[in-house]
């Protein structure tokens, strides 16, 4: 298997965009298994995973619009986690929302970094 040649910033962004929604879905197992919550609890993590996977695919394929789309996705889910941080009652939900907010903020910074711009745009960056 041929390895993916990309700067570390691109790989970290891809891991954050896909990994944070997976961790969110795993955290949602607690109310599903403990309190009998329905599958509707997985709507937002599934949406975050789908959008993150689309942006990651765009980064892998070097589509120019992937960076702008990624910025929009990152801002929306960072704000969502900021509001979840404020409204959560359980400490592990507050902890996870704070870490997710920081992770999406870091992904925002990485999407604006020069190595990622060079990866997508090439010599035009």
Tell me what the structure shows.
- Helix 1 packs antiparallel against helix 5 and helix 4 packs antiparallel against helix 5.
- The two termini are 29 Å apart.
- The protein is elongated.
- The mean pLDDT is 89.
- With 125 residues, it is mostly helical.
- Helices cover 78% and strands 0% of the residues.
Count of beta strands: 0
Average pLDDT score: 89
Are there runs of 5+ residues with pLDDT below 50, and where? none
Number of H- or I-type helical stretches: 6
Helical residue percent band: over 70%
Beta-strand percent range: under 5%
Shape: elongated
Biggest sheet overview: none
| C-alpha end-to-end distance | 29 Å
Q: Kindly name the structural category.
A: mainly alpha
Order of helices and strands: HHHHHH
Radius of gyration: 16 Å
Q: Short summary of the structure?
A:
The chain has helices at residues 8-27, 29-35, 43-60, 64-87, 91-111, 114-121. It is mostly helical. The longest helix has 24 residues, at 64-87.
Tags for this model:
mainly alpha, 125 residues, 0% strand
How does the SSE layout of this entry go?
Elements lengths: L7 H20 L1 H7 L7 H18 L3 H24 L3 H21 L2 H8 L4
Helix pairs in contact: 1-3, 1-5, 3-4, 4-5
């Amino acid at each position: 298997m041929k390895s993916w040649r990309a700067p570390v910033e691109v790989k970290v962004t891809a891991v954050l965009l896909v990994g944070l929604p997976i961790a969110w879905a795993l955290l949602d197992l607690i109310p599903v298994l403990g309190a009998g919550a329905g599958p509707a609890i997985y709507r937002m993590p599934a949406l975050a995973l789908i959008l993150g996977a689309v942006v990651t695919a765009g980064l892998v394929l070097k589509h120019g619009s992937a960076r702008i789309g990624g910025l929009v996705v990152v801002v929306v889910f960072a704000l969502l986690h900021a509001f979840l941080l404020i409204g959560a009652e359980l400490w592990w939900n507050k902890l996870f929302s704070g870490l997710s907010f920081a992770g999406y903020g870091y992904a925002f910074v990485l999407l604006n970094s020069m190595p990622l711009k060079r990866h997508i745009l090439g010599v035009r960056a």
